[in-house]
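Example (one chain per record):
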Amino acid sequence: MSSKLKSVLFACTATVCVGSLAVGYAIAAYPEKLRASTEIGGIDVGELAPGAAKQKLEQWWADQRNRRVRLYSPNVDGPTVVATFAQLGVDLDYDQTIDPLERDTLVAWALRKAGRSSEPVTVAAPSIIMGEQAVDVMAEYLRVIEPEPAAARATLIDGEVQLSFEVPSYEVDPSGVEQVLLEAFFASLDSDDIPEIAIPVIAGSKRIRDSELAVINTVVGEFSTRFSSPNSKRSQNLKRAAEIIDGLVLLPGEEFSFNGRVGKRTLDRGFQKAGAYVRGLHGFQIGGGVCQVSTTLYNAALLANMEMDKRSCHTFAVPYVPLGRDAAVSYGEVDMSFKNTRAEPIAISAKWEPRLLTFSILGKDDPGLEVNIYQRVTKSWEHPIKYEHDKSLEAGEIVVIEKGGKGYQAVTTKVVRRDGEEVSRTVLSRSYYRGGPKVVALNKDLTEVPPAVDDSTDDGLE
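Predicted structure:
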């Protein structure tokens, strides 16, 4: 029986007995000491005045408050932490402990005056109060022992789909702290063993339930592109962007944004300065090359029959995919995004290898579905070479300022078949690669006839 409940019972008993039995007796005759055989938590306070009983309790509590308790998490099979009741904010309410005994003494006194007997022994439980420290101590322990919250993941490893279920966050449940501490405290009175407390916790809700993730069992769309390994900074950018995306799970109707997921390309986030198309020209920027990542993923999503939302082509043709199949990105300006149009979750698995980048869209097997992408060039054109005067150059010396490139128009179409029968044919895009002239510097005062200039381009930057 809790101390609060005992207090109520004692109060009710005293009211009834005194009200009905103590008529005619002087209030001044009320006994000044607790009746004999009165115990609090096993401590004899019989025949003591309330003040003396409180002093004895204070001495007893000085030892009890330093009793230890062992805390552990119900979710982790790991180390425990030992704390004292004092550290957990457990304290003794002396008034609430002594007051019921005074009322009990009054009841016994009134019964004797009426010629009736009462129970010879009063055994009371100490009235325990809780501070706020317990929640803080438990929360700090959880931060140390509980695993970090982790999103659900699905990846492709050696051809097998590997699932990692979501790890939710855990917090202390304040409503359950008082109960477990009371139980541990009273258990410690009857045993020398250190009581153990399972910290009451509240688990955060999972964004992706285990049962939803479990339906992902195969590759539903896959695409690879090649790149030059010797270009180490560009290769590093591809690798960094791919690993940020790898394992991401999309719920039905959820949209993937390349810029939203990969974020700003900065040095402190692991990106390097490499070749890129910058405002329609060949140049260098931090994160150069990540367009190959967005392009590879774009094609994998197409083959998985995802709904494309945003896609842009480059200024120049790129060598790693056919015309009409690229997807340019630039943080804060140009994005590539698509939506999961399936009824189940999908996941994006990325694999970076020297010279090869592969994206696989993972989902529930749909053997009757077939997606094919077709593209054709509808127009192309050359740009005349542009010569600029540079008086600092020697006779016959030339410097290529901008490599330029041919212009193209291309149409890309998606054809979807179900069990061999065509169900849809959609024009995905009409891409326009404007290209640009090669710009060459020479000293026109010394070189009257422009030398033959190789008009080929190396468009493997982005």
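Caption: Residues 416 and 424 are 5 Å apart (CA to CA).
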